[in-house]
Amino acid sequence: MKIDIITIFPQVLTSPFAEGIVHRACEKGLLEIGITNLREFTTDRHKTTDDLPFGGGGGMVMKPEPIFKAAHSLINNSSSQPRTILLSPQGRTLDQTLCNQLSQENHLILICGRYSGVDERVRKHLITDEISIGDYILSGGEVCAMVLVEAVVRLLPGALGNEESAQEDSFQSGLLGGPRYTRPQEFQGLPIPEILLSGDHEKVRVWRRKEALLRTLLRRPDLLERNKLTEEDQAILEKIRNGSAD
Ligand SMILES: C[S@@+](CC[C@H](N)C(=O)[O-])C[C@H]1O[C@@H](n2cnc3c(N)ncnc32)[C@H](O)[C@@H]1O
């Protein structure tokens, strides 16, 4: 997968991608990250990327010409049809379903806005998607791009080591993940649940599922309504609700 990020602050993006899973995915050849400095696509001496808003109002607006030029240079050099994504608080909210979809793509181009946002013609005539990371406002799209990249890259086959399974993550199977424990077996008088020491893999699997369902029921019941539950999940949930679960 190739991910290109268009930004006026390329240096903000270098260190987050120099470590961890994203870096490892690049090393393994699963991922290539390109950072494009928007200022290189300006034509004036001051490398201007923003201007005053027509009709007045506060805040500068990012000019359309450099953004179109930068995106087209990447699109024209692409071997596939890239998804060209504007990071924007007004877009579709990023969730695990969307991350799974994006992880299937060959090439993503992410456009980071700044100031009061980008010229509306970018939204109307350039991009294929507009994606928000949540209902709050950041000063720029760079941190939003990092969030998207990290969430998508964990889903690339081979990106995680054996010890980290994306399939067990919250949301991936429609539920919150259950509790996790590690050594020591007893910490400050607090033991781990005995079933985890039983060696009975099937019992442990069912216990984990029950804990994930219980946690989801208590914290995010909306997820249970939104996702199709298996017959086994429904039976466990029934037991939780009538108090007969172990
Ligand atoms: C200060 S914001 C502009 C907000 C804009 N005035 C609005 O009300 O929609 C500047 C840039 O940060 C990015 N941004 C801020 N919050 C975001 C969010 N929640 N999701 C995605 N991008 C965001 C976008 O690229 C945006 O163009």
Helix content: 25-40%
Bound molecules: S-adenosylmethionine
Mean pLDDT: 96
Content-based structural category: alpha/beta
Tell me the major beta sheet: 5 strands, parallel
The CATH class label of the largest domain is Alpha Beta
Over the alpha carbons, how many angstroms does the gyration radius reach? 23 Å
Query: Count of helical segments?
Result: 9
Instruction: Please name the CATH topology of the largest domain.
Output: Alpha/beta knot
- The run of helices and strands is EHHEEEHEHEHEHEEHHH
Low-confidence segments, given as residue ranges, are none
Overall shape: it is: elongated
Features:
binds S-adenosylmethionine, 16% strand, 246 residues, alpha/beta, two-stranded antiparallel sheet, 2 domains, Alpha/beta knot, Trp Operon Repressor, Chain A, 9 helices, five-stranded parallel beta sheet
